[in-house]
Amino acid sequence: MPVSRRGQLPVWQQIAEELRTSINDGTLLPGSRLPTEAELTERYQVARNTARQALTALVNEGLVTPARPRGYFVRDRKPLYYRPQQEFRPRPLSPEMDIFLAEHSADGRQPAQSIEVAIVDPPRDVKKRLNLGDGELAVVRRRVRYLDGEPFHTNDSYFPLRLVQDTEIMRPEDIARGANQVLAEVGYLQVRALDEFYVRMPTPDEARRLSIGPGTPIAYHLVTGLTEEGQPVRVVLNVLPGDRHVIAFERTRVALPTQAAE
Amino acid sequence: MPVSRRGQLPVWQQIAEELRTSINDGTLLPGSRLPTEAELTERYQVARNTARQALTALVNEGLVTPARPRGYFVRDRKPLYYRPQQEFRPRPLSPEMDIFLAEHSADGRQPAQSIEVAIVDPPRDVKKRLNLGDGELAVVRRRVRYLDGEPFHTNDSYFPLRLVQDTEIMRPEDIARGANQVLAEVGYLQVRALDEFYVRMPTPDEARRLSIGPGTPIAYHLVTGLTEEGQPVRVVLNVLPGDRHVIAFERTRVALPTQAAE
DNA sequence: AAGTGGTCTAGACCACCAC
DNA sequence: TGGTGGTCTAGACCACTTA
C-alpha cells in the first residue's frame, strides 16, 4: 500500500488521510465499520500502535467512534436545531418544557427532562453577570434534557436569591407558565437578553454528565436576562454538545436602507 | 506519587487528572510550563508512552499545547467578541474591513485581511441555501482575516453569479460601501438573514488555513441573506476558531408581556 | 550542542461484550 | 468464548529549535 516511510508525512498521518478520504468520498458511509487495528497493521505493515495512532486521530477529529469490541465506526452526525430566540416569543400556557418539546418532538423523538433546584454560590461567570456581591447567593434550576433517553443538553438557570425567595422558582418542578413569567410577576420583567457562545472541548465533568465522547466539542451558551432598567435578573448556562445541535436564529434589518455592511 | 495500578482509572488518566487539577486551581498558571515527559515518567515511575498519553489527552482537551523543544505549556485562551448582528447596523461610509477593524483594533491589535475572488461551483451547503440549479455557478469572495499577523478567522461570501456579474463584487478589492450595498444597488436589498452555527472539530484543511492546533474546535457559521421576497442572494461561510472568538448578540422582547418563556 | 517532543517498533496482558 | 480495542512497557532513532 502507498505509505512511504520516507514521505513528508508521518506514516500514521498517511493512514489517517486515506481513511479520511474514504469517509469523505462515500466509500465508507456513516455507520459503517472501519478496518480493525489488526487489519490496518497487516495492510500497511506497521506496528499496531502506529495504526492505532491513525485511528485515534480520526476519533479526536470527531469523524469516527470506537465501539468495542465491534470495531471503529464512521460517525453519523444528525444535529437538531436549537433556537435561542424561541424563548422571547409568545406562547400558550403550557409546561416549562414546551419549547423544547415543540422544537424536537416533531421528529417523533421522546423528550424528557430532570430538574434539580439548589441554593449556591454561583460560578464566577454567573456572579459577574448577575452583579452579585461577595457571598451573595443564587438559586439555580439545573436541568438535563433528554431525547429518546439520551442526554441532549444541560440548562442551568441562575436567579439572585433575594429576588426569587419564596416563589415557585425554588421548587424543583416544572413551572407551567415559565420561570420568566414568575420573575415578571414579582416585578422583574425581562425586556432584553445578551447571548454569548463559547466554543471549546468539554471538561471531564461535562463529558460525563452529557455522555460526550472524544472529539466532540461543545457550545457553552450564556444568556443574561435584563429588565427595562438594565438590571440582570437571570443568567442561563447551557452546554450544547456540538454533535447534537445546530444553533439557529434570524435577524431582520434594523436600520434604514442607507447602508448595508457586509 | 499517588498513582495506583489497581485503581479504577487507568494510570494515564490519573496523571492527566492531577495535571488538570493543578491547572484549574491555579498551581499551573496560563503560559507556564508543565513537567516534561521525562520528568513525568520519573515522578510516576511509568513508561514514557504512558506519561505521553496523559499529556496528549490534555492537548486534545485544549488545555495544553506542546511547544517543542521547550515543553508543554498551559494554554491561554483570550477570545475576542464576534458580533454577527453588527452587519445589520448602519455605519458610515468606510472600507469593507471597518466592522472587523472597529471590533478589534480597540485592543491595540493590528487587523489585516486578504481577499480572493473566484467563480466556482459552490459546496452543497451553499448551493442549497442559494437555491442554485445544477451547474449554476457562484462568485465567492474569500477572505482570511488576521490579527497581529496571526490568522483569526475566514469569511467566504457566495453570490449567485447571474446577480453580480459585472459588479464590483467580482473584483478582489475592498468594497468601500460593502458588498451588501452593491447587491442592493442592483436590486437585491437584503432585509432578513438566517444564522446557523455548527460546532465541530476543524478539517485538516481548515486547521492548516487558520493555524488551528489540536484540541481546538471551530464554529462553522452560515449566514443566508434574503430579500423582501425571500429570495436568497448571499451565503456567508465563516470559520471561527473557538480559542479566538466569543459569539455574542443581543435580543429584545418581540411580544406583549403576556408570556415569557424560560 | 543539548534537550525536547515526534515517531515507530514489538510485545504483553486485560476487560468487555456480541455472537 | 473469541476477537475487539484499551493499557502499558522498553527501547530506538529522529527533527527541531532554542539557548
Order of helices and strands of chain A: HHHEEEHEHEEHHEHEEE
What multimeric state do the chains show?
homodimer
Number of distinct helices of chain A = 8
Shape summary of chain A? elongated
Helix content of chain A: 10-25%
Strand order of the largest sheet of chain A: 4-5-6-9-8-7
| Ends distance of chain A | 48 Å
Of all chain pairs, the largest interface belongs to:
A-B, 70 and 70 residues
Keywords (chains A, B): DNA-binding, Transcription, Transcription regulation
InterPro entries (chains A, B): Bact_HTH_transcr_reg (IPR050679), Chorismate_lyase_/UTRA_dom_sf (IPR028978), Tscrpt_reg_HTH_GntR (IPR000524), UTRA (IPR011663), WH-like_DNA-bd_sf (IPR036388), WH_DNA-bd_sf (IPR036390)
Organism (chains A, B): Actinoplanes hulinensis
Protein name (chains A, B): GntR family transcriptional regulator
Task: Show the helix and strand layout.
The structure is a homodimer of 262-residue chains.
Chain A: H1 11-24, H2 37-44, H3 48-60, E1 64-67, E2 71-74, E3 80-82, H4 98-104, E4 111-120, H5 124-129, E5 138-147, E6 150-160, H6 161-164, H7 179-185, E7 190-200, H8 204-209, E8 218-227, E9 232-241, E10 245-252
Parallel strand pairs in A: 3-10
Antiparallel strand pairs in A: 1-2, 4-5, 5-6, 6-9, 7-8, 8-9
Helix pairs in contact in A: 1-3, 2-3
The first copy, chain A, binds a DNA duplex (19 and 19 nucleotides) through helix 3.
